[in-house]
């Protein structure tokens, strides 16, 4: 009983924070003609309910793809249809074809917020709770509840899902996949990840760790025996899962190709979600992405000197090379711990170097980081704070300054109280002991390592707090209207590059993976 009473309090607190944030503004409120992501989700309900499936992804007189055209996989469309069916029962005007564009009312806002709340409660939150109870490091009831509380209080996901407006289903399904794999339920894990990928194509950020981990397990079992059987079962499960999700669109090849064109619009170019490459250096776009291409384009106008096709090839090459060491290590030495760290490293590589990145995509890195907060609480807390800070321009645009400040402080306080993060800054606590042992003459320098790390953390927090205050309260110079958003993105990008190096060092020098292979084989 005590176990569940502690967890009940944790869940109630997490739900209270989410509902409180949802009472505020949302993306694009009162800003015609396009409004924002809230209107996009409502419009998809309008389209999926009123039009036949074959028209969902095609440009027609009833479905103008330039106005929030559906550009996510079939599972998102089915979810929109389900929400629309319920909305129709409450108030048909909410999803009336054409006439419901930009519909805004308090009852409709309550309905839309509730759909996110229910999705969070049914999919994401249960996965977090069960995951925390599955961890060996959180074998006691209190530790599991504390770990769950810190994960559920992560401000980035709360602010985007319940403030900006977004559904947590793809990340929830991916988390269920991780949970199933931790119990060696490989087929269920494969199904869960297929659902995640068929809800949002950005789950490709996590696809290689899932693939390499499962393939590595098959190799260890032997491809002439049990390994081949497992590989066949996994392949069949994946094909069947995709077939079920895509079945209504398999009537002809043109349907499939149109959906794929909507999911991967490569013709838009590298900077579809980032316009730093356009003069002046501080642009007036709304999406300030803290990845390498957008940061470099403040100084080097990549868009003007490199063709779109070359941009695509360059992005692919850099992303692939940054992923390669981690994926090879995970395939050769598959372990659950290595898999979770690979989810972080690979997703961060995709965010920093891949094609058409949105600032919200950092959540695809943050959720895996939250899964290892019990192993490296100091670095995980630091990363999760930076990831939320990197979305500050978007959050300010949505009027979420107060929720941003409160949830950031609440999360930091929870981590300080739960994990005593400042006491866990030694090389061993940061999982860097094997790396330090491989360096010659490391002894004298690493004696002051904890102090250096703590100083860098405090400097980072100070810079983020200063930029947050300036972004909210200070008018930028007239010549550089986006000085603060660009500064936020560049500072965040520098953090992410250092974190990428750190996570790769932990993965490649990890000796625990070798020992844990025996359990798999």
From TrEMBL:
Its job: Dolichyl pyrophosphate Man9GlcNAc2 alpha-1,3-glucosyltransferase that operates in the biosynthetic pathway of dolichol-linked oligosaccharides, the glycan precursors employed in protein asparagine (N)-glycosylation. The assembly of dolichol-linked oligosaccharides begins on the cytosolic side of the endoplasmic reticulum membrane and finishes in its lumen. The sequential addition of sugars to dolichol pyrophosphate produces dolichol-linked oligosaccharides containing fourteen sugars, including two GlcNAcs, nine mannoses and three glucoses.
Enzymatic class: transferase
Protein keywords: Endoplasmic reticulum, Glycosyltransferase, Membrane, Signal, Transferase, Transmembrane, Transmembrane helix
Transmembrane segments: 110-133, 145-167, 173-197, 338-355, 362-389, 401-422, 456-474, 486-509
Record-given protein name: Alpha-1,3-glucosyltransferase
PANTHER family: DOLICHYL GLYCOSYLTRANSFERASE, DOLICHYL PYROPHOSPHATE MAN9GLCNAC2 ALPHA-1,3-GLUCOSYLTRANSFERASE
Main localisation: endoplasmic reticulum
Entry annotated with the keyword Membrane: yes
Domain of life: Eukaryota
Cross-referenced InterPro entries: Glyco_trans_ALG6/ALG8
Locations listed in the record: Endoplasmic reticulum membrane
Any one GO cellular component localisation term in the record: endoplasmic reticulum membrane
Pathway per the UniProt entry: Protein modification; protein glycosylation
Family: Belongs to the ALG6/ALG8 glucosyltransferase family.
Topological category with respect to the lipid bilayer: Multi-pass membrane protein
Organism: Hemiprocne comata
Organism classification: Eukaryota, Metazoa, Chordata, Craniata, Vertebrata
Catalytic activity as recorded in UniProt: an alpha-D-Man-(1->2)-alpha-D-Man-(1->2)-alpha-D-Man-(1->3)-[alpha-D-Man-(1->2)-alpha-D-Man-(1->3)-[alpha-D-Man-(1->2)-alpha-D-Man-(1->6)]-alpha-D-Man-(1->6)]-beta-D-Man-(1->4)-beta-D-GlcNAc-(1->4)-alpha-D-GlcNAc-diphospho-di-trans,poly-cis-dolichol + a di-trans,poly-cis-dolichyl beta-D-glucosyl phosphate = an alpha-D-Glc-(1->3)-alpha-D-Man-(1->2)-alpha-D-Man-(1->2)-alpha-D-Man-(1->3)-[alpha-D-Man-(1->2)-alpha-D-Man-(1->3)-[alpha-D-Man-(1->2)-alpha-D-Man-(1->6)]-alpha-D-Man-(1->6)]-beta-D-Man-(1->4)-beta-D-GlcNAc-(1->4)-alpha-D-GlcNAc-diphospho-di-trans,poly-cis-dolichol + a di-trans,poly-cis-dolichyl phosphate + H(+)
Signal peptide: 1-24
EC number, UniProt record: 2.4.1.-
GO MF assignments: dolichyl pyrophosphate Man9GlcNAc2 alpha-1,3-glucosyltransferase activity
